[in-house]
Amino acid sequence: MNSLTLKQAVSRLVAPVAVFGAVGIAVSLHAAPVYSDNVLASNPVAYFRLNETSGSSAANAVISSTTTGSYGIRGSGSYTLGSTNAIRPPTYGGLDAGNVAVSLAGDVGGESRNAGYLATSSVASVTDYTMEFWLNNTRGAQDTLITFVAGTTDGAKWESLGIMGSVIPAYQGRFCVGANVGAGETTQYFSGSLATAGWHDVALVRSGDKLNLYVDGVKDATTITLSTSFGAANSFVIGARASDKNWGMIGLIDEAAIYTTALSDGVIADHYASAIPEPASLVLLALAGVVVLRRRRA
To answer: Is CATH 2.60.120.200 the classification given to domain 33-276?
Structure first.
């Protein structure tokens, strides 16, 4: 388990507020939404909360950043804003109670040229990077070929994280990276898989010529090696292949952040942990219940 800073530990505690009245004591309890605070503290160039309910623009929560985000479609793909099937309390106590997500529908009927996606404007001076987002892959690994969930491109070269389909049974459901960084198109595989629906915190990290994958704060056992021949500016895509917006996913995305640095193992693990209620919060809830019960019996 990763150690927490004092500020992070305090922010995760449930705050009891007692109000005394003629008939007893009422206790109000709440948990602060600390996940977004932790993401912003790690200095992303863009952080898209994806809380929009209309339009085609995604708001960037990094006030000082000039990076913009927009929703798009390819072919007969689609995106739907404002889904309440999002990461929110009580399961994810570090998020806002009213948090919403974006639903994406791509690869309709097995056709690769359909996608709904989120894309950023160009981000300058990309060498190392981290793409971090929450993913609910409702299609699983049923696609015939491959479902792409995120990636980056400089307009000529690209690399994207995908989930392999049934065309290669031995790797079906496995995370992989499809790429063309100057030496032809290649596919390499991580050790982990994501064949079933449900929310997961996913981070793809490039450091030098190495790519690492993290799912729910845990680093994949396999490191992928690719060249570092990207241009001076890259755009990032979530929900489809970065190069052409094809091979779109079916599912939901939320809380997407882009960094121009390679986040460390500890930081990524802490981001995930900050979305989940701490055991201390549950203890305080139980204690609060005891206080109320004893007061009423007195």
So the answer is: yes
Q: What letter represents residue 133's amino acid?
A: F
The encoded tokens of residue 153 equal 């491109």
Nearest-CA neighbor of 102 among 141, 150, 49, 151?
49
Mean pLDDT score, 257-277: 95
**269, 217 Cβ separation under 8 angstroms:** yes
Burial environment of residue 104 by CB neighbours within 10 A (0 to 12, 13 to 18, 19 or more): buried
pTM higher than 0.85: no
Q: Check: CB of residue 199 under 8 Å from CB of residue 137.
A: no
Q: In angstroms, rounded to a whole number, what is the distance separating the alpha carbons of residues 235 and 243?
A: 10
Q: Please, which pLDDT band fits residue 153 given cuts at 50, 70 and 90?
A: very high
Locate the domains of the chain by residue range.
Answer: 1-31+278-298, 33-276
* Summary mean pLDDT of the chain: 82
Q: How far is C-alpha 98 from the geometric centre of its chain's CA atoms?
A: 17
Chain-centre distance for alpha carbon 71: 16
CB atoms within 10 A of CB 196: 11
* Predicted confidence band of residue 108 (pLDDT cuts 50, 70, 90): low
What is d(CA 1, CA 7) in angstroms, rounded to the nearest whole number?
A: 17
Q: What pLDDT, on a 0 to 100 scale, did the predictor assign at position 278?
A: 60
